[in-house]
Amino acid sequence: MDKSYQLTVNNTTVYERSASENTALDAVEITPIQFHILKDSQPYTAEIVNANFLAKIYTVKVNGNLYTVAISSPLDKLIKDMGFEVGASKQINVIKAPMPGLILEMSVTVGQEVKENDCLLILEAMKMENSFLSPRAGIIKSISASKGDAVEKGQLLIEFE
């Protein structure tokens, strides 16, 4: 079975490509990032300028012209169609209680700027203290609980701007 890939060039043009089409190219590696390619008797000089392997996004210079190429497989497309993003995280704007418990400490105030991994609050649940760290840098928009409050599972605790 021949794997197929979708190539999106400069966020505008989409190409479907199979692995066998790539092996049909006459490509010679000059350096690990530079290649000489012959396609239909036409010579091309290609250089990988920037590579984001996890996001599958590459900036390639072909005969002096820059192109941004995003590569996705059928699995990548299926994951995106299901509402997930490949190689990227979604922006978290709220912190909710994952279980019922008691707020032992609220370490932030409304309007405070926090960095990723700063301690936001400590929740006691099932005789354990759970520290909630900031999932991202941002500014605290609202706080819906305070020290000593009993909270329920799913209750909004902190909201980011």
From TrEMBL:
Superkingdom field: Bacteria
Classification via PROSITE patterns: BIOTINYL_LIPOYL (PS50968)
Keyword Metal-binding annotated: no
InterPro entries linked: Biotin_Carboxyl_Carrier/Decarb, Biotin_lipoyl, Single_hybrid_motif
Lipoyl-binding domain sequence ranges: 83-161
Alphabetized UniProt keyword annotations: Biotin
UniProt-listed Pfam families: Biotin_lipoyl
CDD domains: biotinyl_domain
Keyword Transferase: no
Protein name listed in UniProt: Biotin carboxyl carrier protein
Organism: Flavobacterium arsenatis
